Amino acid sequence: MIEFQVHSFESATLRVSRLAAFQPDPLLAILGNLLRGQTLRHFDQESGPAGKWADLQPSTMARKRGGQILFDTGRLRGSIGIAAGHNQVEVGTSVAYAGFHQQGTRKMVARPFVGLTAADHDEIERATHTFIASLIA
């Protein structure tokens, strides 16, 4: 025989109604900001979804203003933005040369900065669980 007791039916009803009224926009905004932060962290750590970026060639180092990979003027890193809505969230940039760095060329090795590492996936999952838990708390 299976037995169970409901001690606070009103509380359970309230929690279920919060889930039933779930709107994705607040969660998408949270995840969008998280994705943007993760992408900026890729710049800071000089790594991305494919791992550590390749070192710069000596000729490139000689003409750069600083030693950080994918950072000269800061334009590319500063352009990282998000678009959330319509049940999706996107992170990216409109800087024309971003694709060359992301995918590489015949003469330039790829240094992907947009994309998810395993740690990024875990962070997104934790944020999603926290958000859902806040709905039923």
Write up this protein.
- The chain is mainly α and 137 residues long.
- It has one domain (23-136).
- The chain is built from six helices and four strands.
- It has helices spanning 9-20, 25-45, 58-63, 75-78, 98-103, 118-136, and strands spanning 47-48, 51-52, 81-85, 88-92.
- The strands form two sheets. The protein has a two-stranded antiparallel ribbon with strand order 1-2. The protein has a two-stranded antiparallel sheet with strand order 3-4.
- The mean pLDDT is 86.
Low-confidence runs: none
Number of domains: 1
SSE string, helices as H and strands as E: HHEEHHEEHH
Please describe the biggest sheet, giving its number of strands, its sense, and whether it closes into a barrel. Answer: 2 strands, antiparallel
Principal-axis shape: elongated
Number of helices: 6
- How large a portion of the residues is in β-strands, by DSSP E? 5-15%
Please report the distance between the alpha carbons of the first and last residues: 30 Å
Structural class: mainly alpha
Record the strand order, biggest sheet. 1-2
**C-alpha-based Rg, rounded:** 21 Å
